[in-house]
Amino acid sequence: MFYREAGDFKTSYATDNQTFPIKFDRLGYFTVMAVAFLVIPFIINDYWANAIFLPFLIYAIAALGLNILVGYCGQVSLGTGGFMAVGAYACYKLMTSMPEVNIFFHVLISGGITGLVCVIFGLPSLRIKGFYLAVATLAAQFFLVWLFNRVPWFYNYSASGQINAPERTVFGIPVTGPNTEAWATYLFCLVFVVVSALIARNLTRGMAGRKWMAIRDMDIAAEIIGVNPLKAKISAFAVSGFFVGVSGALFFSVYLGAVEVGEAFGINKSFLVLFMIIIGGLGSIFGSFAGAAFLVLLPVVLKVVGVDWLGWPTDIVAHLQLVIVGGLIILFLILEPHGLAQLWRVTKQKLRLWPFPH
Amino acid sequence: MSTQESYVTDDGRTIGPTVMEMKNITLRFGGVKAITDISFDIREGEIRAIIGPNGAGKSSMLNVISGFYVPQEGEVWYKGKKRPPMRPYQVAEQGIARTFQNIALFEGMTVLDNVMTGRLRKMNASLISQAIWRGKAEKEEIENREAVEKIIDFLEIQAIRKTPVGRLPYGLKKRVELARALAAEPSILLLDEPMAGMNVEEKEDMSRFILDMNDEFGTTIALIEHDMGVVMDLSDRVVVMDYGKKIGDGTPDEVRNNQAVIDAYLGVAHD
């Protein structure tokens, strides 16, 4: 009834190109932004921040990054955990060696460094595709974790081999370290998420995104019409690496505070982010958020329902979670390969006509 | 035959000097000779057809022109210069666009995005500018959208602008592919069987588009086609290939009366 494009006439290509061409979508977007910036910071507490909002926001950035590489450019990567570790360790080295620089820039530079590393490991994509590329990036995953475990320089020769985030502030308010407040860490991550999403959206609706999708859909035809496959793939790896690095840096510095690389950034992390974009929807910005929200919320909901309400033992609920995630992935691959984003699109399509049958 | 002076055809189009020349091209795949010692030229503004029975090497010839295959012998001259061996995307950068026998569109993208991809040679805003969608990127996006809309109008595909290509029927996909190639404003447009698998009306539409393109934009066109009626009607000059060799070259009338061509198509009596 309210959700329709009829009557919303576009008179310039600029308005036709905008991110949310339908008025109702724009309103929804501004509402979400207003709630995220003006309401949640005042009601958030430590539990909500640590159990839901921080992991959701941080994984959303990682999922955006991986989605650009896998969903838009069609280059499969299983190295996300390793690349997040690059972001985390880059951030740690920057925080400890240049304490006078604002943490905000540390996170950005960590993203840049990860982008470079990602490009290096992405070079084989020029020769190999599909499964073989997946295996090559898997090698990156194991190599990077090994590197951060074995070279003491990366963890500043600490006895435990862990890295710990020292306290850093933004405008005098601590966002890392032990004395942070929920709203500050939440807002800090939110800013990165919003900017990442805007950048990802702008890149994917412009020429860069078209080149990536051309490579994904038919690489030979893309080359014939003038896409330089080297540049297109490398730029996808670089942008993807940047986002994944930012998420790794935030994951370590803001969310966990202390990290042991094999545990925090192991192969499981790579799969988790990959599952997020498969369930959420490959080649969709919204899907990255939907998938991250889904896989962050699922364990929390299961725990609340299973342990708190039904009184089941914790280990059974934990195992049940693995079963459900596995089942859902198979279900999604069979029924809706385009994920939650496609369900959302179908719903919107239906809404355009509702409540009329035709 | 001198090929350098411009002349005006019967229907009033000006055919310019040679824009591309193939000199003694030989292409081998292992022991198989796909193309043997073929030379021909393409002149500015003309519609040049390449015909021949199946397996004659026509598509291979087009692949040589678009840089997909590198011939073992022979030279490709383009705009008066010898072309070094180059990758297909470099050939595209020089202004040669093509369509494929089996449609090669980007199925996951909309018609508009597919055609916009054809404009990539005209758009070179930096990644940063694209990321913030300000300045050069936004300006280019709008300017090129205008150019693309003209082509969409021209090929009468306005209604399906925002439809993902994967959902379109065959005939429309062919047209979208033509739009994408045309969007590049190519110096030479290569069409590999633009009318394969079409019914009579679709063929008529496509013929009209090809003639209009040539007429309005002055696009030089080299096309491969099996429908003899279409080829003889459309083209200014025809190259005939058989078993990788050139057996005829000239105006449709000359080719039609060429004994070697008649033999290749109708067969020779063995007594």
Automatic annotation (TrEMBL), chain A:
The lineage of its organism: Bacteria, Pseudomonadati, Pseudomonadota, Alphaproteobacteria, Rhodobacterales. Keywords: Cell membrane, Membrane, Transmembrane, Transmembrane helix. This is Leucine/isoleucine/valine transporter permease subunit. It is found in: Cell membrane. Pfam families: BPD_transp_2. It comes from Shimia thalassica. InterPro entries: ABC_transp_permease, LivM-like. The chain crosses the membrane at residues 27-44, 50-69, 76-95, 101-123, 130-148, 183-200, 236-259, 271-296, 316-335. GO terms for molecular function: branched-chain amino acid transmembrane transporter activity. It is a multi-pass membrane protein. It comes from the Bacteria. PANTHER family: ABC TRANSPORTER PERMEASE PROTEIN, HIGH-AFFINITY BRANCHED-CHAIN AMINO ACID TRANSPORT SYSTEM PERMEASE.
From TrEMBL, chain B:
Pfam families: ABC_tran, BCA_ABC_TP_C. One of its GO terms (molecular function) is ATP hydrolysis activity. Keywords: ATP-binding, Hydrolase, Nucleotide-binding, Transport. SMART domains: AAA. Its EC number is 3.6.3.25. Residues 20-268 form the ABC transporter domain. It is an enzyme of class 3 (hydrolase). One of its GO terms (cellular component) is plasma membrane. It comes from the Bacteria. InterPro entries: AAA+_ATPase (IPR003593), ABC_AA/LPS_Transport (IPR051120), ABC_transporter-like_ATP-bd (IPR003439), BCA_ABC_TP_C (IPR032823), P-loop_NTPase (IPR027417). This is Sulfate/thiosulfate import ATP-binding protein CysA. It comes from Shimia thalassica. The gene is cysA_3.
